[in-house]
């Protein structure tokens, strides 16, 4: 059973959840809207705490018919050389060319987005207590860096391949910086020599070090939550917690329904990029998109709302590989990644300056000894955290080919799609290196206790670079 809602069921459920009946249709069948009317104040007025609490996980995507003979994207590995072509702004999945041009005759995906997680019961209005942000340096005790790796997870459906490390060193996207400072210029590294030693922070056992062209480093938030990040006592067992500033909910309107996925901040020169799963932001009717960092039901907007920017045509500044739109969530599951550029909050603060950000790490291994997984289940008042190792899973389903990261973590149902896989999580900054997002195979997995991620290789790095270029001057 896939962890999804159908669009019709989700819309009907949304109507039942709101006291006043169905949500109003903001724009009929189009992602376009007047660019000047989607500021942080407009987003805050639209996404009220009640509407956010009633939002449902993004519904299942409409299957995309793919002509016979069109090959599925070949997932790159650390050994793959970057291919030519650059991804471009998705414009809320309006069909703008992305990382690679679609095959001749391939249709454009304009259907609703998907959350491939099982959908839990509808959110209840009762809030749960949660620590409020406090001034000062980030503090707290999170998952200890020295914890031994847990036992390898059990085999996944589809006969996963044995874990394997790539032949070449990893490529980080950006090194950590301090909030409030300008984005640091990339540090010129030495020539990659496997296994290379990281130029910024030491890599965990079994993970090759970053290679050339490092991307911006993780950044710390300007203020930290009052409570510590508590690591689950048992590897692979998820638990609710008060969250971290750089992870939150991405809200979106589709049709007459309000929906959300999990998303996180990724460090960038413009300090304004958010990372999620591609299926979360796919669809021509995707609009009124806003990111809410560190969301909890008791404290829904501790840092305010950050609206996803629009271009001159009124299209949301979202980057998704074109092949994911034309070939669909199954065949192009290895490309289930999205970046979005956001504007400042109502106080004028840039996102990364306010909450910090994780460094994007590409070209790494499928197998990581310790990954912190964070997601926002729809039925929970607070986010969920879990720590475990990842393994390599290779699908045997010809309809959804490719290799993916796989992690066994309990209790990650609908709403957690887009949640980050974080390595080298730092208890002080509450950030680390992001190596995946919940998505990819079966849009994240058919059960709530095992999650998947596309592999972050050369294609995802190109998509990030296109987003960085497109977000300049935003």
Automatic annotation (TrEMBL):
Coiled-coil annotated spans: none
Compositional bias of kind Low complexity: 75-99, 107-119, 127-188
Keywords: Signal
Keyword flag tRNA processing: no
Gene3D superfamilies reported in the protein's UniProt record: Trypsin-like serine proteases
Stretch list, region Disordered: 67-227
Composition bias, Pro residues: 205-219
InterPro entries attached to this UniProt entry: Peptidase_S1_PA, Peptidase_S1_PA_chymotrypsin
Domain of life: Bacteria
Signal sequence extent: 1-27
Protein name listed in UniProt: Uncharacterized protein
């Amino acid at each position: 059973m896939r962890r999804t809602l159908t669009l019709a069921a989700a819309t009907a459920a949304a109507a039942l959840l709101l006291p006043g009946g169905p949500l109003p249709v903001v724009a009929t069948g189009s992602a376009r809207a007047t660019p000047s009317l989607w500021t942080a104040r407009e987003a805050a007025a639209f996404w009220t705490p009640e509407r956010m609490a009633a939002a449902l996980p993004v519904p299942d995507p409409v299957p995309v018919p793919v002509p016979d003979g069109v090959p599925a994207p070949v997932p790159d590995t650390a050994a793959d050389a970057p291919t030519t072509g650059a991804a471009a702004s998705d414009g809320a999945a309006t069909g703008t060319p992305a990382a690679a041009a679609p095959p001749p005759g391939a249709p454009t995906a304009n259907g609703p987005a998907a959350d491939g997680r099982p959908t839990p019961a509808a959110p209840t209005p009762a809030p749960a207590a949660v620590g409020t942000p406090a001034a000062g340096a980030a503090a707290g005790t999170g998952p200890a860096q020295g914890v031994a790796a847990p036992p390898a997870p059990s085999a996944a459906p589809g006969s996963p391949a044995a874990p394997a490390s790539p032949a070449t060193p990893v490529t980080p996207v950006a090194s950590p910086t301090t909030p409030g400072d300008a984005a640091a210029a990339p540090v010129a590294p030495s020539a990659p020599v496997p296994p290379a030693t990281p130029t910024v922070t030491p890599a965990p056992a079994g993970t090759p070090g970053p290679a050339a062209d490092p991307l911006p480093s993780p950044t710390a938030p300007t203020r930290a939550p009052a409570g510590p990040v508590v690591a689950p006592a048992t590897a692979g067992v998820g638990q609710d917690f008060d969250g971290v500033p750089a992870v939150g909910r991405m809200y979106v309107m589709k049709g007459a329904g309000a929906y959300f996925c999990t998303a996180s901040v990724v460090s960038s020169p413009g300090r304004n990029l958010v990372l999620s799963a591609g299926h979360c932001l796919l669809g021509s009717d995707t609009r009124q998109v806003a990111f809410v960092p560190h969301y909890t039901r008791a404290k829904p907007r501790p840092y305010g709302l950050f609206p996803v920017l629009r271009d001159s045509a009124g299209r949301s500044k979202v980057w998704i590989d074109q092949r994911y739109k034309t070939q669909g969530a199954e065949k192009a599951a290895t490309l289930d990644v999205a970046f979005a550029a956001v504007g400042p909050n109502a106080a004028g603060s840039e996102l990364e300056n306010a909450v910090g950000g994780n460094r994007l790490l590409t070209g790494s291994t499928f197998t990581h000894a310790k990954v912190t997984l964070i997601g926002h289940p729809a039925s929970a008042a607070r986010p969920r955290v879990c720590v475990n190792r990842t393994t390599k899973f290779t699908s045997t389903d010809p309809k959804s080919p490719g290799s993916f990261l796989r992690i066994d973590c309990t209790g990650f149902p609908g709403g957690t799609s887009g949640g980050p896989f974080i390595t080298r999580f730092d208890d002080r900054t509450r950030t680390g290196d992001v190596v995946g997002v919940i998505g990819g195979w079966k849009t994240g997995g058919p059960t709530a206790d095992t999650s998947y991620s596309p592999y972050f290789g050369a294609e995802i790095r190109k998509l990030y670079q296109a987003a960085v270029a497109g977000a300049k001057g935003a």
